[in-house]
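Aggregate trends can hide what the representation actually does to any particular protein. This step matters because it turns folding into a mapping between discrete strings. For completeness, the protein is quoted in full, as a sequence line and a line of structure tokens:
=====
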Amino acid sequence: MVTKAVKVRRPGEGRKFGVAAKSLAELLPKACALLQLPSSKARLCLYEDGTEVTETYFRKIPDNSELILLAPGEDWQGYVSEIQRFLDAFSSQTDGIVRAAQGLLSGEEAPKRRKLLADLIHNLSQNIEAESREDDEKWFQGELLTFLDLFSGMYVNGRLCFRAKGRLLVSEALILVPPSLLGVESRFKTKSGYMRYSCESRIRSYMKEVGAYASSLPPSVHAKFRQIAKAMLEKLKSERYNGFYFDRRAEKKACLCTPEGWFSCQGPFDTKDCPCRHSINPYGNKESRILFSTWNLDHVIEKKRTILPTLAEALADRRDVDWEYFYRLLFTVSNLKLVHIACHKKTNHNLSCDKRKIFRKSKPFCRVQKRPSPAAKTPQI
């Protein structure tokens, strides 16, 4: 029989031992002696996929194959087990993993490996637990903060303000820079407060589109539409523009994230969930906060193509329109899905409103029969 050289190690241990043997019966005792494991009921399997090595299979494996020595009750699923062990180390050895990844990144030249290491460092360096500005000042900063500080600048309504010779000057040019890159305004003292405001801003923009749509309607329905838009606005104000969707301090049933702040993509409008399992925690660090601004609250039944035209058409009918049904479609998660930008399909959804819910159900008319008064009763003979 031909002697075969292999490498053996224990699960979760990086140190490997070279062993030479002509058969599995010869290999197993040698491996147990090297790794200090009782040979009774011990077994060997391939590192790659967890295939158990039998006497017949041992003759087929190539030289220098990597094997895992397992004690009774232990299991090995190949790379999956290694990944699981790696993930388990995150919670207890985060700082050490970050330092090790930074060391590897400094000497790495391969673009793909650099990207993987950079993403790992980014994800493990998040300060998720911090909530206030004092506890995580970097989270509130923007990419252009240094530039603004240099000019004692302020960002107001899309324009750059700065002081010169004791006077406050305002630039005439509109600066087309996303506010997220300029940092979070000083009036926000907590992450949750800003995230709530971020959601409110999105819902406000939808309300503005509803109001603007009225100008394109004929006079016959214009007044009715404006009246319904006003009712929707009042309801939004009472609900604080549904900002609780992004607020991790809100009730679990109301917000779209976990108590720690993790959001999961709900997938394209035509699927039940996200095929790529996108997730993000904008509470973790500045980069995640900025990236989250690219996620969309997508209308499943489309706002401009379907909801608003259907509402306008219904107003031409004499029946009582159920504006609260349209409110739910426009501003609530009954018709809104939080989606990663890659899952946001901008094609025509080809979905329509539920015709059974457009109008309020009228109460059936019941004729009340009057009972005869006691004086009107026929006297008995």
User: Anything to note?
Assistant: Residues 145-153, 163-176 have pLDDT under 50 and may be disordered.
